[in-house]
């Protein structure tokens, strides 16, 4: 018989603006990019840390900001970037929701298996 106890559920959380026509959402990738900015103070450093070109990171940030209708980053040219108050709140909410959902899903899977 197969040992199912090692299995874990995979949850894909996103925060989106239902009135936006864009397909851009705040998901795991943008959350990781924002965490990198929070840790390094630089969008360029965050992008490099993820193996991503700065231009791609910039495009993703701009598309997500437009879709959500909020500014996520304050950019200060050569002095780096920081999360805005809204960016901090969305990132913190995303991280907490992701953690809660993962815990609930793991508990539910154990009960179901």
TrEMBL record:
What Pfam families would the database entry show?
HTH_1
Question: Which SUPFAM superfamilies does the record match to this protein?
Answer: Winged helix' DNA-binding domain
Q: Where is the HTH lysR-type domain?
A: 37-87
Q: Which Gene3D superfamilies match?
A: Winged helix-like DNA-binding domain superfamily/Winged helix DNA-binding domain
**Listed name of the protein:** Molybdenum transporter
Q: Name its species.
A: Raoultibacter timonensis
């Amino acid at each position: 018989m197969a040992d199912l106890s090692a299995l874990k559920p995979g949850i894909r959380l996103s925060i989106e603006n239902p009135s936006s026509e864009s397909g851009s959402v705040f998901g795991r990738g943008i959350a990781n990019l924002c965490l990198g900015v929070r840790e390094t103070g630089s969008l360029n450093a965050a992008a490099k840390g993820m193996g991503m070109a700065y231009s791609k990171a910039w495009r993703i940030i701009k598309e997500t900001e437009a879709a959500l209708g909020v500014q996520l980053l304050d950019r200060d040219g050569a002095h780096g970037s920081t999360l805005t108050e809204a960016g901090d709140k969305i990132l913190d909410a995303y991280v907490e929701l992701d953690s809660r959902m993962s815990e609930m899903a793991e508990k539910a899977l154990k009960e179901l298996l």
